[in-house]
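Human
Can I borrow your eye for a moment on a structure tokenisation matter? Give me a protein, with the fold worked out from its sequence. Write it directly below this note and I will take it from there.

Assistant
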Amino acid sequence: MSCRCKLILLLLAITLAGCALPSRVAPPLAVVRDDLDVASLRLAIGHSLSYLRKLPPERVVGELPRSFTAGELIDSLSAFDALLDGWGCRECFAREFAARFELIPSSPLANQAEVLFTGYYQPVIDARLTPGDGFDYPLYGVPADLVTQEQNGEKKLGRIENQTLLPYYSRRDIDELGALRGRNLEIAWVQDPIELFFLHIQGSGLLRLRDGREVTAGYAAQSGLPYRAIGRLLIDNGKIAKEEMSMQRLRRYLTENPTERNEIFAYNESYVFFRLIDGGPVGSLGVPVSAGRTIATDSRLFPRGGLALVQAEIPIVGAQGELTGWRPVTRFVLNQDTGGAIRGPQRADYYFGTGDDAGALAGYMNRQGRFYIVALKKALTTSAD
């Protein structure tokens, strides 16, 4: 992703009245700065609306920080999008926002107010549609024997054997023992097993083919086995100091220690299956994700497609790719994605975009922050009533 010239487009002060507990409301004076362009925000809002309008308006799409229906989110997003017509007049925007919207902290509990923000991006990887010339590591499409069953009210993924649902094949089963080999599931091949592993972690990537074409390897399914972070494994085993850990440091260790690589990869048994699609990356809602405007959260908890306000710090990266500092940002974002490592009310993943610059930012991103759901005040909602 090329470096973006960032302008502070909005500075507004919203005074939130009331005597609720501090853990339930935004600070008494919330100063909101958004340094990205309004066009990207409106585009991301449009993507969320396209998802939500396909659902029954009464469908519950999130339980935290309270229950939200698709209709409520449509009302909030539509009203906020209309409010953006006044983006250039900060006083007008501030007055209308305070009158019509509320900022709801992600958790009502004081000990869950802080959220760990990590980052993700779309890598660009050389690939081929047929194997050979060193392109020997396959991306797999969704296997036909990967099935979903409901057990005790929870959906479980796996495979059926003797009429019993078993866990699906692990990463070691697939990559080392060839559990899917010979089933014509390969959709592309890459040269570097490290790049392939990180493609699984990111969930999608841009494949650069021999003839110069670029196609997106988009997330299609996951094996159902739990995600386990290899960075934590290396920290726990004393291989990398906790304070040194980043995606860049992890890549370096894997490159310098090839004999350990398979064992490290196998620790994360979760496996991702892909599909080739035209256009940019698509999130878990089936709509495009937007650099700087999309976050991923636990889809079981937070309102899918909803508008949020994040307060966090993002990395400052030097010319040689080194971390030089942190920059505080406050931005409007859309909750449009999820991930295997993003579980619970205190985790969020921030999408930085495509390519090496985005990857550098995402690789260092590991910072505590806060986010608030932006909702039209209850008295103003109409669609869900």
Summary: The chain is about 25% helix and 35% strand. Residues 122-277 form a domain with the Ribosomal Protein L25; Chain P fold (CATH 2.40.240.50). Confidence is low (pLDDT under 50) at residues 1-31.
